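Following up on my earlier message about acetyl coenzyme *A. Here are the inputs again, as you asked, copied directly from the submission form:
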Amino acid sequence: MYFSKLIATGACVPKTVISNQKLSELVDTSDEWISSRTGIRNRHFAQTENASDLAIGTARQILSRCQIAPEDIDLIIVATVSGDYTTPSVACLVQAAIGAKNALAFDISAACSGFIFGLSVADKYIRAGIYKNALIIGSELLSKYLNFNDRSTCVLFGDGSGGAMVVRSDEPGLLCEALGSDGERGLSLTCGHVPTSSPFNGLPRGTDPYVHMDGRVIFDFATRTVPKSVEEMLEKQGVGIEDIDLVVPHQANSRIVEIISRKLKIPMEKFYLNMHEYANTSSASIPIALNELVENGRITPGMTVLFCGFGAGLTWGNMLIRM
Ligand code: ACO
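Thanks, got it. Here's what our run produced:
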């Protein structure tokens, strides 16, 4: 019987930091409004890099931290909603850049739950005995989709990338998961609409690149669906709250995380928050946080860590892992 285990992490974030104060010079907002409602103080915005550059930076860092040669990678999955191109995928661009010439590479679109969906797909390939070494990355260049005339959305997001190497193991690493989707509420958070048009239907060309969001619907979804899904998952697995060492939630909003903490009765001290520095980087937010925790020694081998992803689609992905 095969299991999958996470053996190395990495991240790559643009250098340019835009504070709430800096943003308020452009948009009618304030540090007080943004930080009190979301916990966000800074975000990193790319200058010239695209999503693939950040993903490649992450991939190189992960490779430098594990004993796996690029040609031994079987699978590359990049979770992104803001790739450089509609095609080729960011995963294929990563494959070429790192020389992983034997890998199957593709992107998945599950917004802020994307990294968890990617881990889940890799886990199935590994458990089925099809692949041994999988590189999973979340990479987003959300700044290019932000409407800086819409203060209700442009203050919330940032750019970045993070990821992990997941390999075949004799012991369970990815312990259990609860993933789901609710397409009925999908249009409450959209990004990058390309309408139907061609010279043969008379409809004009034109795209709406921007993020649009009904913040209240998303808030309600995240604070109801995530705790319920986590509770059901832990009960099914027979895992108690006390067995969880750390929680790495999607870094959308500190108020959402506080409500999840309260509902799950897991103290806030166990939740890792870094949205004050990066804002919401969608699929990259959990792996960036995970990488920070590994780098600063707060996550060590043997610890049990809960990931809580939730976002557009709508989608959610909760997963319990043993490091
Ligand atoms: N600065 C100053 N004022 C603002 C800003 C801003 N950036 N944005 C909105 N306002 C104003 C509004 O215009 C409104 O003013 P009005 O009452 O005069 O009309 C007022 O603030 C309240 O606006 P609401 O949208 O009702 O604010 P709310 O308290 O709901 O907070 C927020 C908005 C923070 C987005 C909240 O709905 C939320 O946290 N939603 C969750 C959404 C989220 O986290 N999305 C991330 C992406 S999805 C994901 O990753 C899961």
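One observation from looking it over: The longest strand covers residues 159-169. Hope that helps, and feel free to reply on this thread.
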